[in-house]
Amino acid sequence: MADPYLAVAILFFFAGIVVLALLLIAEKVGPKKPSPVKGEPFESGNSPKGDARIRFPVKFYLIAMLFLIFDIEVVFLYPWAILFRRLGILGLVEMGIFLLILVIGFIYAWRKGALEWE
Amino acid sequence: MDLGNLESLKFFYPEIVLSGTILLLILFDLFIRNKRWLGLMAFLGCILSLVTTFQLYGMSPGWLFHHMIILDNFSLFFKVVSLLAALLVVWMSLGCREIREIHQGEYYTILLTSALGMFFMASSSNLLMAYLSLELVSITSYILTGFLPHNRRSTEAALKYLIYGGVASGTMIYGMSWIFGMTGSLDYARISEALFQGQTNHLALFMAFIFILAGFGYKIVFVPFHMWSPDVYQGAPTPITAFLSVGSNAAGTAILMRFFFPAVSRLGEGGDWLFISGVEWPHFLLMVSMVTMTLGNLCALNQQNLKRLLAYSGIAHAGYILMGLVVLNNDGLKAMLFYIVVYLIMNLGAFLVVVIVANETGKEEIGDYRGLAWRGAAIPAVCMAIFLFSLTGLPPLAGFVGKFFLFAAVIKQGFYLLAVVGIINSVISLYYYAGVVKTMFLDFPEPTDPQVTMTANTSALLGVLSTLTVLFGIYWGPLVHSLH
After folding, report:
1. Is the dihedral of CA B445, B446, B447, B452 positive or negative?
2. N or C of chain B: less Cβ packing under 10 Å?
3. Minimal CA separation from B414 to chain A, in Å
4. How far is B223 from B204, CA to CA, in rounded Å?
């Protein structure tokens, strides 16, 4: 009795062969006409200008963090809203506690000035 | 006893109290001017949580929240340990100048959150819960490590810790996915059932264990997952170093035992543990334990910075604690728990003296401790000597009793090599601990060296810790009895 994972190994082997064969054929047979335009990075049709590694304010990082937190809050609200009737009053209380904790976080962010741009 | 969500809340008071304290701390931080109250509030919250934890002692074991969390005396013990660590560290922080200069509200909030994570680490009975709690502790630790603003060492340590921790926990969750793939469950009890039917591939199981050990091992700080610890211990604020060295170690040990004991081994007859044949993790742990203590002690020999020295000694002590796990019976377990309590007291004590000296001098090099006893700080110097000799394991101090139980458990099971390596290591460690004591008492201070004084608050804490270190060395009966 062969190992049940033998099939996976065979699959890996042939997948590797196919990839190698395709690369080799393209390398040997395909015509090559390089030009400066072809060598450029692709940016949806515009010709690229400047460096990709530019500096941007660290404040965006803070905004991203805040967004993440309150985004997740909304993600939790959706399934709760769908099951609202089945969860009943207990679900309402639980969600109330959850939102209370988030509101404390919101007050904290506000008071500490995380929402001010300057 | 297997409870659903609502019924579980009755047995969840310690966690609820701690979470409530954390929320109140965040709110009060916004509206209170005198930040000293925040430390006192954190202190009170810890005490309240400790009281509720003690009320739960002696209950019949059960599962909470649909098999997510296990409630038994073992998890309660580790809750008490992490609460004590948090409590003493809050107390220590109150008298620490480093801490007074930073955002105290966030500091205490995150410290208590870390303690809360340790609660869950000790009581999780599901791989997912284990992973989440470990991450909670890790992430708070990264933040606390980098808490000193405009301090290059602190920032560097936090970044190293973050990268190292990320890799370790990634490896761990990969191993967990293997376990899930082999057993079809994340619940420890079901994993155990599936594994004992014996249809899993042993090599794959062993690999999965090694991966998971990477995650646990980096919390316990055993070799080869120890590299982050010297830098982090040196860079972090000293009370946080103390917290990490004790809390992280204890919680890591708890989660490791939780995983190995209910999930992959069983209680056999006569208190011995049975483990799955073909997966030789006890032998693996035996080697890890020996290498860890040897490497930790050898590296500590050459350190000039006291916090770094204590970091390497912490690695060595992680090795000693693992000795108790190698023997696979209840004797070893008890010895281990006893040693964790003792280690908590003496290690926090040693770091407290570091805080006292750094408050006045701002330095942590061993050279700065020269003639400490003759610079108005005879009491801290004597206490430091007590803590260091206790860490070495000299009688009549608590460390000696702890090591005695560990070695006794190991020798009883016939692991003579491990015992010999452990004893040789204790002798090596005497050299560098005694070196510090020599610097404090036998070297003479330069006229430029500042005087060191203590506030009433820190002297009270120092008194408590050193009294306990001596007390448990002479009269250890009650503590041992309470571990049964």
Report:
1. negative
2. C
3. 41
4. 22
- The confidence score (pLDDT) of residue B67 equals 85
> What does the alpha-carbon distance between residue B299 and residue B249 come to, in Å, rounded to a whole number?
19
DSSP conformation class of B61: P
| Under 8 Å between Cβ of B241 and B233 | yes
- Number of Cβ within 10 Å of residue B482's Cβ equals 14
pLDDT at B279: 64
Of all residues in chain B, the one with the smallest CA distance to A100 is B23
What are the DSSP E strand ranges found in chain A?
none
Q: Give B303's contacts (C-beta < 8 A, 6+ positions apart).
A: B309, B312, B366, B432
Cβ-defined contact of B27 to A104 (cutoff 8 Å): yes
pTM metric for this prediction:
0.87
Segment B381-399, tens digit of pLDDT: 999 999 999 999 888 899 9
List CB contacts of B466: < 8 A, sequence separation 6 or more. B349, B383, B386, B387
Distance CA B484, CA B480 (A): 7
**Chain A with chain B: Cβ pairs closer than 8 A:** 14
Residues B291-349: pLDDT tens digits? 999 999 999 998 999 999 999 999 999 999 988 888 877 788 889 999 999 999 999 99
pLDDT in tens, B243-270: 999 998 999 999 988 887 766 666 655 5
d(CA B436, CA B240): 22
Type of residue at B320: Y
* First-to-final CA distance of chain B: 21
pLDDT of A21 above 70 = yes
Alpha-carbon gap, residue B76 to B55, rounded angstroms: 10
- Give residue for tokens 């708070």: B140
| Domain layout of chain B by residue ranges | 290-484
**ipTM computed for the complex:** 0.75
pLDDT in tens, B201-223: 778 888 888 899 899 989 988 88
Q: Distance between the two ends of chain A, CA-based, in angstroms?
A: 71
> B307 near B237, Cβ under 8 Å?
no
Quick check: B204 and B282 in contact, CB under 8 A?
A: no
Residue by residue, what is the 3-state secondary structure of B359-403? HHHCCCEHHHHCCHHHCCCHHHHHHHHHHHHHHHCCCCCHHHHHH
Task: Quote the crossing angle between the two packed helices B104-123 and B127-145, to the nearest 10°.
Answer: 160
B413 versus B137: the higher-pLDDT residue is B137
Of B6, B23, B30, the CB nearest to A111: B30
Whether B480 has its CB under 8 Å from any CB of chain A: the answer is no
- The answer, for B23 touching chain A at a CB cutoff of 8 Å, is yes
Q: Which domains does chain A have, with CATH numbers?
A: 59-111 (1.20.58.1610)
* Cβ atoms within 10 Å, residue B214: 19
